[in-house]
Design a protein that fits this description.
The complex is a heterodimer of chains A (269) and B (159). By secondary structure, chain A is of the alpha+beta class. Chain A is built from eight helices and eleven strands. Chain A starts with 11 loop residues before the first helix and ends in a 7-residue tail after the last strand. Chain B is elongated, with a radius of gyration of 32 Å. Classes of the chains: A alpha+beta (269), B mainly alpha (159).
């Protein structure tokens, strides 16, 4: 997905390991072919998470892998997402699990950014005194990175990546050391003023596991924020990410974010 | 074998340390830690149990089908009810009404989306609210915007 990433040629060791695994796989298929066919048919019959939830099927984190898509050109900077997130997750004042930034770029390339109260109350007209040629809003949140620095350095195993691809903080394990807050290249974490533990976006885990949308996605009036599951057959967001010129934030950090941006301008940091 | 006693001592000390280690480890490492990785797997279940505040898509329509139909036919079709009102949980629980749903007639709510801003997409309907009201003669220059100024002319459900 990362446009800067190049595929490395496979080493001899990788090749031999892969060949050995494939041979073993073939043997298993030969031995248990019929059962495997039955299993894959059952998997194909599975539809959206909502159908699963209403059918009373218990949520299996191993059967989902989430991703998030932001269409910058659609964001109107209303802040409905920030307000919905704060209400849904009881986010303390002046702290944000998601926020909206405004970028204003002048003809000479000067960039003015602001995010008053995280964009929670919307934005006021801003006079920069410059010839603004490009202006847009950029919603931000935890990128739920596949290679997240915050998880790597957590000394107590409180920050972790769940099987469904989310970065979460176990409040009972967190000792509030704040290393992860400093390590996150995207500024997505904060220390909760009451619990004194690290707090961050969970993509509304309590909602998505019931087949609902994250509060920010549901609140977005223009469809700028979208939520998908790569494991869901025919998932629209997965298709857009696979087929459109999407970008990620700070690709140079090699964090492999699972939050993609459509139409992201290069001024965004 | 005159040193057998020493060996037994070393063995016993190692055994005691080993057993103590297993004992301490049992109390220090929480249940389900390491099941799926270097974390407490059961904490996923704790996240799932957090209360849901906003309703699911379409949860309002189960009681308010008429308003929903009106809204869906208009320009605010893609705006969730809860954006302008309040989360479902303040108004209903278990399919029963528990309190009145707040309405916010203030122009500041309309302005969060429709106040003209350079950064907004050009095709999105927006207006300089103050100038618009002065042009219409609703207020004079320098005056505060009267409460509910927008909804006098613009009905959010039927737009």
């Amino acid at each position: 997905m990362n446009e800067y990433e190049k595929e490395e040629p496979a080493s001899r060791r990788d090749f031999l390991c892969g060949a050995a695994q494939q041979a073993a796989g073939a043997a298993i298929i030969l031995a248990f072919g019929e059962q495997l066919v039955a299993f894959s048919e059952a998997a194909a019959g599975e539809t959206a998470a909502t159908a699963e939830a209403s059918a009373g099927v218990p949520y299996d984190p191993l059967k989902h892998r989430y991703l998030y898509l932001i269409d910058v050109a659609k964001c109107i900077g209303c802040g409905a997402c920030v307000r919905a997130c704060a209400l849904e997750n009881d986010v303390p004042d002046n702290h944000f699990r998601t926020w909206v930034e405004r970028y204003m770029v002048s003809r000479t390339g000067e960039v003015t950014t602001d995010s008053p109260n995280g964009g929670k109350d919307g934005f006021e007209p801003l006079l920069t005194g410059q010839d603004i040629t490009k202006a847009f809003f950029v919603p931000k949140l935890c990128n739920h990175c596949s290679q997240s620095p915050c998880v790597q350095l957590c000394p107590v195993g409180a920050s972790y990546r769940s099987p469904d691809g989310l970065i979460l903080v176990d409040e009972k394990r967190c000792i509030g050391c704040g290393y992860c807050v400093q390590a996150c290249p995207y500024g997505s974490r904060f220390i909760h003023p009451e619990t004194h533990t690290a707090s961050k976006c969970t993509l509304c885990y309590h909602r998505i596991t019931k087949g609902m949308l994250p509060a920010c996605v549901q609140a977005c009036p223009t469809g700028a924020r979208r939520f998908g599951d790569t494991q869901r057959p025919g998932d629209e967001v997965t298709e857009i990410v696979a087929s459109s010129p999407v970008r990620i934030l700070k690709p140079e950090m090699n964090t492999e974010p699972n939050c993609y941006y459509l139409g992201l301008s290069q001024e965004v940091r | 074998m005159e040193h057998t006693k020493h060996l037994w001592r070393a063995f016993l000390i190692l055994l005691v340390l080993g057993v103590a280690g297993i004992f301490v480890r049992h109390f220090l490492i929480p249940e389900s830690f390491g099941e799926q990785g270097f974390y407490r797997y059961t904490s996923l279940g704790e996240f799932k149990e957090k209360p849901v505040i906003h309703g699911a898509v379409g949860s309002c329509t189960s009681c308010h089908q008429e308003i929903a139909d009106t809204k869906t036919a208009g320009k605010h079709a893609s705006v969730s009810c809860e954006v302008c009102h309040a989360p479902e949980s303040v108004h209903a629980a278990g399919g029963q009404k528990i309190a009145d749903m707040p309405t916010n007639p203030s122009h500041t709510l309309c302005a969060t989306c429709h106040q003209f801003l350079e950064a907004r997409p050009k095709e999105f309907p927006q207006v300089d609210v103050t100038q618009h009201l002065i042009d219409l003669g609703v207020m004079a220059k320098g005056e505060a915007i009267p409460d509910g100024a927008c909804i006098v002319c613009h009905q959010p459900h039927t737009l």
